[in-house]
Every structure is written in C-alpha cells, then in structure tokens.
Amino acid sequence: MGFFSWKTSDTGKSISISYSSRGALPVYVLCPDGSKIYEPNYEGYGVFGGRDVYALVAQWNFPEKCKDEHGAWLSDEECRDLGIDIACYDRQNEALKYPIKIVENKHWGYGDVGPATMCPDQGYFYGDYDEEY
C-alpha cells in the first residue's frame, strides 16, 4: 500500500508525511460539529489524531450506516471502506454535505474553508526525491 495525502483547505500546501524529506506538516482535521483533530506527525495512511479520516467522513455523511443495531458507533475500521467509496476522489469529496477539510491554521472553522484536495505527490514524492535517492 502506498502513501496518500491531501492539500490543506486553507493554504493549499501538501500535507507532507513524517517519512518525507520535508517532514510532517502539522494539521487539523475540521469536523462539522466544530471540533478539531490535531495531527502533528502524519504518517501517510489517513489517520489523524488517532482517527481514520475516511471513517469520519462516512460517519458525518451516513451515520445510519456507521452504527450497529443498538445505535452504537462502529469502529473506524468498519466504516473506512464506506468513506473511501464516497470521498476517495476530489469530485466525490466536494459533492458531500460534509466533506473532508484539513487545515494548517487552527483558527479556521468547518464552514470557513472548502474541501481538501488530494495531493499528487502523496505527501512524499516531491521533486527533490530523485535528488536524494
């Protein structure tokens, strides 16, 4: 499995991962309820502050599919595939009522910025990669 990442919603910067030549870019996942999830050391697999961002986007948009018969939330692992199905591509994420939004500046609120877009460099493969290796 390869790395994947986004560009921030506020600055358009690549969310570089901890293994890249740039080191990790500290970011915040903005949640529709106004909360924020801080991630200082993104590793490139969609987990921010211990939460899978694809599971979160599934829970935000299809909560009924992310709960068991008793109304308890399913695990992130159980909701992740649904999140990938609905938000893997920029067009899909942008079309959601509650898209993935990731920012560098913690002062932004969920309604203040647009959806995060996928990073073509996967947060790792920057132009300086060939020069290093």
Structure description:
This protein has helices at residues 53-61, 76-87, 90-95, 129-132; strands at 6-7, 27-30, 36-39, 47-48, 51-52, 102-103, 117-118. It has 133 residues and is α+β, with helices and mostly antiparallel strands. The chain has one domain (6-107). The strands form 3 sheets. Strands 3-2-6 form a 3-stranded antiparallel beta sheet, with no helix packed on it. Strand 2 and strand 3 (36-39) form a beta hairpin. Helix 1 crosses helix 2 (76-87).
Q: Percentage of helical residues?
A: 10-25%
Assembly classification: single chain
Largest sheet: 3 strands, antiparallel
Count of the separate structural domains: 1
Cα-to-Cα separation, first versus last residue: 20 Å
Q: Helix count?
A: 4
| Spatial ordering of strands, largest sheet | 3-2-6
Q: Helix and strand string, N-terminal first?
A: EEEEEHHHEEH
Q: Please tell me what the overall shape is.
A: globular
What features would you highlight for this structure?
133 residues, disordered C terminus
Please specify the SSE layout and strand pairing:
Elements: E1 6-7, E2 27-30, E3 36-39, E4 47-48, E5 51-52, H1 53-61, H2 76-87, H3 90-95, E6 102-103, E7 117-118, H4 129-132
Antiparallel strand pairs: 1-7, 2-3, 2-6, 4-5
Q: Outline of this structure?
A:
The protein is of the alpha+beta class and 133 residues long. The protein has 4 helices and 7 strands, in the order βββββαααββα. It has one domain.
